[in-house]
Amino acid sequence: MKAQVKPVIAFAVELLRPYWRRLLVAAAIGCLNSFAAVSLLAIIDRELRSGTAASLSALAAFPGFFVVMLASEIASGAETGFIGQEIVASLRKEMTKKVLLAPIPEIEQVQSHRVLAALQQDVGNLSGFSRALTYFVVAVCEVLGCAIYLLYFSAPMFLASAAVWAGSYLVTRYVLKGAYATLADERAAYDELQKHYGALINGAKELKISRERRERFYRGELVSTIHRLRDVINKSATLFLAASALDNASFFLLAGALLALAPHLGADTATLSSFVLAILFMRTPVSMVILSLPEFSRVRVSFEKVRELSERFASLESDLLAEGAPAKIEFKELELRGAQYVFPHAAGAMPFTLGPIDLVLKKGEILFVTGENGSGKTTLVKLLLGLYPLKQGEIRLNGELVTDANRDDYRQNFSAIFFDFYLFDDLIVADEAASEAVRSYLERLNIAHKVTVEEGRLSTLELSTGQRKRLALIGTYLEQRPLVVFDEWAAEQDPTFRRIFYTEILGELKRQGKTLIVVSHDDRYFGAADRILHIREGKAVAEGHERPKDGPAPAASTSP
Fold this sequence. Notes:
The chain is of the alpha/beta class and 560 residues long. It has 14 helices and twelve strands. Helix 2 packs parallel to helix 5 (112-153), helix 5 (112-153) packs antiparallel against helix 6 and helix 6 (155-202) runs antiparallel to helix 8 (211-261). The two termini are 56 Å apart.
């Protein structure tokens, strides 16, 4: 456990480092609040023990200390809250930046529900932590101030109180230990619930048509996870409430112990009453500290999850958000030399390997990539796009080696529509000329009656997959990049638009000088290609205009 806590503390310290001066100011204001509160307590205690009417000095001092206590509590709380929200905003920006810069293989391996849980649940917990920290700082200052006040009154009574309190704290801590253990289970159950929520939405059609699957998913998985999360939260809440109850009871236990010990410690009735008054005053801030512990415990778990994700998404390409467009080049040639990629795999399993592959693409070529499902076509596309790192081999653009330093500049030569594409509703080029061009494309692609362009944004994305792919095609027109990748673009098109794509659109793009990489199963239109690269079991087995008959994959790739 200690080995796990140290990195979390280091991560938390790193987050707090930019705000340490403001934290010191907030702590100083909290100490001023504690001083004012203890001063008020001292005035009340002195006047009660005097047995006479309140003195003029007490009546004069009381309002001043009261205003200072009230103002300092608000100021300390507000400053701590502002700092907390600054930290949360900074963490949100940093985490979204990490996801944006993360290597694609890492994003694909980390399931989306875990990323969303970290961005929503864990960062949300840190936001709650910032609010709890506000009250925690003030409460700790008040407890420390009262402790100093009690020590000033009677050291023996203070030490006796501390001993009794320490004993009750050990019991409370034992209960809290069990409560802390449930928080990791709570977080795991929440992750699982996020996963089921995704299946509930994305698998709605499959669930609707299969009664058996629907029953198994709802009762066996979704409801089971909801109940597990409910139970672990109830267990956690019960244990934390028990700890809070023990803490409250400890005040009365302490008061009873002082009543019994006072004669043996040389404390008179006045001293005893002062101690009891101070202890009752301390009950609220101490309870505040105890009630903050569950929030801080959840934060520890959240810190660990966020830290793990942050480390996993570390990228060698740290300048992806640097401003400035890459220098435009005239594309002439793209070459793969012995390019190979190996998928991460579970221990004991055989990894899937693409390549080694040699390939040369010239300006204005149309290359069709074919192969069975799972053969490595999309992997090759991601390798060409610079989204997957090479295990061995190299990529050269116009003869220049592609490295970590220039890989993002290299990617800017491509437009791509993936099979599992995501469509944004804004246009990268959003001027009026671009909007007019988009309107023209919408007419040609027969979706102008469903989509319009307003202030550089598409009016809707609520379309069929085929229609949304046509919208994505418009984006490639606007980007004006020399290489365009279509990963089974025609798969969801009706026969008319499938024919238009292969017989008209590809030819138009070729005449514009673009190099096209088309992943396709449509052997009827293979004649539209200049070359065909067939992939089988991760190996390039043939090139030409004829699709080869399936057979055993060779041990090595073929060169163009």
